[in-house]
Every structure is written in structure tokens, then in C-alpha cells.
């Protein structure tokens, strides 16, 4: 059967291509037809697979943003309670204990309204010990507060506020594709709750602030997430983006449109409706994230569901984000229809144009073909005049073909002569190219080294100007802060003892800012901090460095081993070189998690002629090493892999060594260690202007 169909198709193709006219039509239309068919297939495939995957990727990202938004709300609530308990008015009232209970209640109520909480109260440690819900929120000894989501029954809500029991109540609705409700209404409430320590003016814990927000019927949370994710023009026209918070499988807060009793869609929200059974089993029962199509209340959505956990780690509900599917399907079908119409028009116009053009080509092509066949047989024939305009491509082709035949024999003779000359020239040029290639490689290597140095210099200059400006702008307000803090301490007199800790903390932080500013200025304007350069021996400087860092690294049980073999002297500033070596050794100790040794070695630095050029210093550790992708950035200002670092140590070290006319290099292997090598010349370095001139001369 297969052979019969193949023979029939081959026969039909032979009939279609039996003449030049038919062959031209087939050859010209076939690529167009195949291209258009491929385009249709690719477009449909792209819309089905790629666009669909993009929708699921978007809804997955939306779900992640929504989860982050919920965590951010908990953090904001925790910060708000911290500000309340830090208020001087509340601390003063609490110090008087029972004498100002009414005033304390007033302060708490005004703060509750101001920060938008549904409840805010003061509780004691004894109350927390008897309340199982509060036990889970008890902050640790090192923490000021703890936040989380909890589910409270009707009695627990009533203890917080009688109004919360009414606000939490919601009747349950029968929902398509969901299981039947097991009860008539939901009386439990889901709350975002924070428990924060309250300390008196002496820092003693005298109670706890218990505050939070009821999420049942709460529109601000889901509407805030929706407005952030699905702002205008982020979805196709007619698409609706929605967010829902579930208590178990019940929608307690949502902006999914509900349905009025008359049967028409309205502004009522689908609060109290249930999630589909398929989603409930996957998310609530199995604890998995759902990213797929889902039937949401009364329509199909591109949806994402994630389990929601309380402060104890139990699954208590779900968080959902999604948008309606119908507008995307409508746009997809409309695009396919428009593309099909356009492709049909293109195919029709192409067929007409090919047919008209084929007629004008046939006769001249037949004549050209006959001359070609005669030439193949060795006959001397020419195409001559085709009866076409001189500007016609076929007419020009015929003339050029005739000229080609005339020149063909002459070209053959010239080709032979040229081939002989070419072979000789190729041999000569090959030898020359080998010499030039060697020179070019050497020049390229020099150019690359010079370019790298100039890029580094330009980057350091630009960053230096920027940091100088920043340091200058910060320095003035820092001085004002120091002056005003001293004035405040003087004006308060004896009362300053109540806030002495806070004043000292501010002064410490300002001093830290000034230290950072000093480093910035030293990096940005090294000329202002230049010290005289003197000819020094490396050994004593290294020995002094080991004495200075011994106290800093002895807690880690790290030894500094010296291997000093150099006898050459170098032109440096002793204190600045000490600063560089101390910085490298301290950095090496930070990279070593356990006890070990840091090896500092020196040896003479020789040039190509074997003459002593200077000294090479190496600082090697047995630490964790540096990732290859970070090696090119370690000398950049403000780049650091340590949480407490400023990122200026290696940048300043680089500038100091460069001022000495030296070079600092780094080699590192992950899990083995890192080695910093400093090359210092014996002769005094050129100044900055001379260095710049020399670099330009090299380029």
C-alpha cells in the first residue's frame, strides 16, 4: 500500500514538472507553501506550549510575590508593636504599674487604631503560660518579638474582643466542583498575631504586647496583593486577577467575584465558598503547591495554590493567586484566525505573481538553454539579441554569457600563469606571515596587559571621585550629630542617665561612620595621606606585622609561619606596608574556619636578565578559597563576602602597593586556600603623571 501511494505521488510530480512552465511554478510555489505551512505550525505550537508555560511561570511568580507580601505584613506588624512598646509614654505608665491601668488602656487603644490592628492588649508572663496559643508566640531570650498566623476558635476570639467573634462568622456556600460543606457556618478566625516584649526604662521585661489582625472578611490584605500583582494593563482586556486566603478549604478573604442571588455576576465576593476537591486533596492533604488550570468558584482560572502554615508549622489553609483563562484563549484563537487569513492572501498573491513571471521567462530561457547545450558539444555559438530591453536582466545575462565565452579560452591561459605565480607568492607570504604572527602575538599580549591596567586605573579613579563626594557629604552631618548629642547630654544633666545607653550607642555608631569616612577619603584621595617612601628591608617589617596580629588571631589557634629568603631592599613606606600585610593576614584568618597556619614568605624578584628587580612577598592561607568568578572583583571598592566587612581593605591595599610601583596578585583554589603575592621594585616608583605618560606610550 505504501509503495502504491509513493509511486502515485512520484508520477504526479513528474507530470507537474514535465515542462519548464510547470517546473517554475512548482519550484517557486513549493518553498512559499512549505514556509507558510511551517509558520502556521510553529505559531500554533508556540501559542500552545510557550505561551501556556509563560502563563504558568507568571502565576508561579505571582504566588511567590503574594507569599512575600504576607511575610512583609507580619514584619510590618512586628515593627509597629516594637515602636509602640518603645514609646516613652507607655514605658512611663507601665513603670507606675496598677496606678494607671485606664491610661494604659487608652494608650493601647489609640495605638491600635493608629496602626490598623483589630486587637491590642497587654498580657503578663502568667497569662502566656496558661494560654496554649500564646505559648507558641513566646519570643526567645534573644528576640524582642515573634509573629505568625494562628487559627482561633470562637472562645479564643471572644477573649480578645467580642467584636472579633461577629467579624469572623461567615455562612458557608455550596460551590461547584467542591465537596459539600460539613457545617453551616465558620466561627473560627485566622489572625496575623504578634507577641512583643515590653521593657521598662531599666530594660526589665514587665509584660508583653499581644496584637494582631483578623483575616476573616479582611479585604486590605488580598486587595493589596491584587493591586500589586495585577495593576492596569498587566492582563489582557477582560481578564480578572484575584487573590484568596483560605482557612482549611474555605475562602475567608478573597476578591474572586461572587454571584448575586438573582443569578447575575455582581460586586459581591465569594467569601464562604469552598475550593475544588482536586485542589484540596493536592494542597491541603498532600502539602504540595498547585500550578495549573483550576475551577475557581464559577469560572476557569490559571491558578497557583500554596499551603499556609501557622506559627507551629501546621497546615491551616492555603494562599491563592490567579487570573481568568478565557481572555487568553480568546486572544489565542483570534491570533490564529488572523494569521490564517494573512497566509492565504500571501499564498494567492504569490501564485499569481509566479505564474505571470514564468511566462516572460520561458522563451529567453529556451534560447539560452540551446546555446549552453551547443557550447557543451564544442560548438561556437552565441546567444545574440533576445528581443528584450537592454536593461532586462536576461538581456544583460545573454551579453555577459557571450563575453564569457569569448574570454573563456584567454582566461584559461591566464589562470595557468597565475597559478604558477600564486604558488611562489604563497610560499613567500607564508614565511612572512609566520614572522608577523609571532610579533603580533607579543604585541597583543602587551596591549592586553596595558589595556587591563588602564581599565583598572580608570575604574579606580571614577570610584575614587564618587566615594570622595559621598564621604564629604556624610562628614558634615556626622559632625553635626556628634555636636548635638553632646549638647543633648549637657542639657539633660542628671536626666541623661535614663537615656545614657541610647546616647552612647548613637555616639559609637557615629564614630564608626567617621572611621568608614576616613577609609573612603584615604581611598578616594590617596595623595592627601601620602607618607614619605624610604628604602627598607622586608624582614623587620614582616616580623613587626606578626607581633601586631598575634592577639587578633590567637583565639583561632592560628600560627603565622615566616619564610624570609630575600636580601634585597625596596622603596616603601613602612607603616603603609604594615597596613597591607596586616589586612592580608587578618583576611586569611577569617577565611580559615579551624586552626591552622598562615605562611608569609619572601624571595628576591629577578628580571629577564637575572638581575635583582625587587622583592616578592607571598601570604598563603589554608582557608575555604575564593570562587573563580569573584577573583576579578576582590580589589573593587565595597566588594566583600563578609557580613561585617566594608569592602575597602583590599581596595586600599591595592592602591598602596600601586603607589609603591608594585603589583598585587591573587591565586585561589576552593577548599585548598588562597595566596596573595606582592611584587615590590627596588627602585623608587614614577609619579602618577609619569605612569600615565608611559602607559599612553605603550598604547
UniProtKB/TrEMBL annotation:
Pfam families in the record:
HATPase_c, HisKA, sCache_3_3
Q: Which residues form the Histidine kinase domain?
A: 469-684
- Name the EC number(s): 2.7.13.3
State the reactions this protein catalyses: ATP + protein L-histidine = ADP + protein N-phospho-L-histidine
All copies of the HAMP domain together span: 359-413
Q: Which UniProt keywords apply?
A: Cell membrane, Coiled coil, Kinase, Membrane, Phosphoprotein, Transferase, Transmembrane, Transmembrane helix
**Out of the domains of life, which is the source?**
Bacteria
- Enzyme class, UniProt record, top EC level: transferase
Can you say where in the cell this protein is located? Cell membrane
- SMART domains in the record: HATPase_c, HisKA
Which topology term describes how it sits in the membrane? Multi-pass membrane protein
**PROSITE patterns named in the record:** HAMP, HIS_KIN
Q: Which SUPFAM superfamilies match?
A: ATPase domain of HSP90 chaperone/DNA topoisomerase II/histidine kinase, Homodimeric domain of signal transducing histidine kinase, Sensory domain-like
Membrane-crossing segments per the record? 24-46
Cellular component GO terms, alphabetical: plasma membrane
Q: Which stretches are annotated as coiled coil?
A: 398-457
The principal localisation class reads membrane
Q: A single GO molecular function, which one?
A: phosphorelay sensor kinase activity
Q: What protein name is recorded for this chain?
A: histidine kinase
Q: Which organism is it from?
A: Ferrimonas aestuarii
Amino acid at each position: 500500500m505504501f509503495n502504491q501511494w509513493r509511486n502515485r505521488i512520484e508520477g504526479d510530480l513528474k507530470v507537474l514538472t514535465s515542462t519548464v512552465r510547470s517546473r517554475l511554478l512548482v519550484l517557486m510555489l513549493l518553498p512559499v507553501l512549505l514556509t507558510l505551512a511551517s509558520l502556521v505550525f510553529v505559531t500554533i505550537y508556540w501559542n500552545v506550549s510557550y505561551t501556556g508555560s509563560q502563563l504558568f511561570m507568571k502565576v508561579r511568580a505571582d504566588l511567590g510575590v503574594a507569599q512575600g507580601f504576607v511575610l512583609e505584613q507580619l514584619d510590618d506588624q512586628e515593627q509597629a508593636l516594637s515602636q509602640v512598646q518603645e514609646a516613652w509614654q507607655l514605658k512611663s505608665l507601665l513603670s507606675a504599674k496598677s496606678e494607671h491601668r485606664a491610661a494604659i488602656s487608652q494608650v493601647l487603644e489609640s495605638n491600635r487604631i493608629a496602626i490598623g490592628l483589630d486587637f491590642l492588649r497587654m498580657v503578663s508572663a502568667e497569662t502566656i503560660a496558661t494560654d496554649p496559643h500564646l505559648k507558641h508566640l513566646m519570643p526567645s531570650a534573644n528576640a524582642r518579638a515573634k509573629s505568625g498566623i494562628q487559627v482561633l476558635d470562637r472562645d479564643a476570639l471572644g477573649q480578645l474582643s467580642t467584636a472579633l467573634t461577629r467579624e469572623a462568622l461567615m455562612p458557608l456556600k455550596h460551590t461547584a466542583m467542591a465537596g459539600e460543606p460539613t457545617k453551616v457556618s465558620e466561627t473560627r478566625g485566622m489572625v496575623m498575631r504578634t507577641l512583643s516584649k515590653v521593657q521598662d526604662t531599666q530594660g526589665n521585661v514587665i509584660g508583653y504586647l499581644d496584637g494582631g489582625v483578623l483575616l476573616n472578611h479582611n479585604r486590605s490584605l488580598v486587595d493589596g496583593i491584587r493591586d500589586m500583582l495585577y495593576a492596569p494593563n498587566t492582563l489582557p482586556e477582560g481578564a480578572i486577577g484575584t487573590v484568596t486566603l483560605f482557612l482549611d478549604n474555605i475562602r475567608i478573604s478573597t476578591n474572586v467575584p461572587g454571584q448575586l442571588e438573582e443569578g447575575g455576576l455582581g460586586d459581591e465576593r465569594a467569601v464562604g465558598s469552598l475550593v475544588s476537591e482536586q485542589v484540596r486533596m493536592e494542597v491541603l492533604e498532600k502539602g504540595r503547591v498547585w500550578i495549573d488550570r483550576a475551577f475557581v468558584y464559577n469560572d476557569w482560572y490559571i491558578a497557583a495554590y500554596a499551603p499556609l502554615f501557622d506559627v507551629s508549622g501546621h497546615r491551616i489553609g492555603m494562599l491563592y493567586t490567579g487570573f481568568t483563562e478565557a481572555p487568553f484563549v480568546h486572544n489565542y484563537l483570534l491570533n490564529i484566525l488572523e494569521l490564517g487569513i494573512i497566509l492565504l492572501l500571501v499564498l494567492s498573491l504569490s501564485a499569481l505573481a509566479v505564474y505571470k513571471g514564468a511566462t516572460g521567462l520561458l522563451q529567453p530561457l529556451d534560447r539560452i538553454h540551446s546555446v549552453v547545450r551547443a557550447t557543451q558539444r564544442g560548438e561556437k555559438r552565441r546567444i545574440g539579441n533576445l528581443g528584450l530591453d537592454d536593461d532586462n536582466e536576461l538581456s544583460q545575462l545573454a551579453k555577459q554569457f557571450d563575453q564569457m565565452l569569448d574570454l573563456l579560452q584567454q582566461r584559461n591561459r591566464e589562470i595557468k600563469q597565475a597559478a604558477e605565480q600564486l604558488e611562489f607568492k604563497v610560499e613567500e607570504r607564508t614565511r612572512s606571515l609566520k614572522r608577523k604572527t609571532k610579533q603580533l602575538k607579543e604585541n597583543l599580549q602587551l596591549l592586553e596587559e596595558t589595556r587591563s591596567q588602564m581599565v583598572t586605573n580608570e575604574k579606580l579613579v571614577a570610584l575614587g571621585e564618587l566615594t570622595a563626594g559621598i564621604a564629604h557629604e556624610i562628614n558634615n552631618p556626622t559632625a553635626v550629630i556628634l555636636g548635638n548629642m553632646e549638647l543633648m547630654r549637657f542639657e539633660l544633666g542628671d536626666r541623661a542617665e535614663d537615656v545614657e545607653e541610647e546616647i552612647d550607642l548613637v555616639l559609637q555608631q557615629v564614630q564608626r561612620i567617621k572611621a568608614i569616612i576616613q577609609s573612603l577619603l584615604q581611598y578616594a584621595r590617596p595623595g592627601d595621606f601620602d607618607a614619605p617612601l624610604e628604602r627598607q628591608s622586608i624582614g623587620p617589617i614582616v616580623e613587626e606585622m606578626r607581633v601586631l596580629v598575634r592577639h587578633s588571631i590567637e583565639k583561632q589557634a592560628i600560627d603565622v609561619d615566616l619564610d624570609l629568603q630575600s636580601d634585597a631592599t625596596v622603596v616603601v613606606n613602612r607603616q603603609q606596608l604594615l597596613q597591607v600585610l596586616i589586612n592580608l593576614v587578618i583576611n586569611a584568618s577569617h577565611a580559615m574556619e579551624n586552626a591552622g597556619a598562615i605562611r608569609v614568605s619572601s624571595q628576591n624578584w629577578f628580571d629577564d636578565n637575572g638581575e635583582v628587580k625587587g622583592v616578592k612577598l607571598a601570604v598563603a592561607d589554608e582557608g575555604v578559597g575564593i570562587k573563580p568568578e569573584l577573583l576579578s572583583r576582590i580589589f573593587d571598592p565595597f566588594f566583600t563576602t563578609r557580613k561585617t566587612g566594608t569592602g575597602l581593605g583590599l581596595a586600599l591595599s591595592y592602591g598602596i602597593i600601586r603607589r609603591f610601583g608594585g603589583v598585587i596578585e591573587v591565586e585561589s583554589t576552593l577548599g585548598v586556600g588562597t595566596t596573595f603575592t606582592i611584587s615590590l621594585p627596588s627602585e623608587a616608583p614614577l609619579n602618577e603623571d609619569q605612569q600615565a605618560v608611559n602607559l599612553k606610550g605603550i598604547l
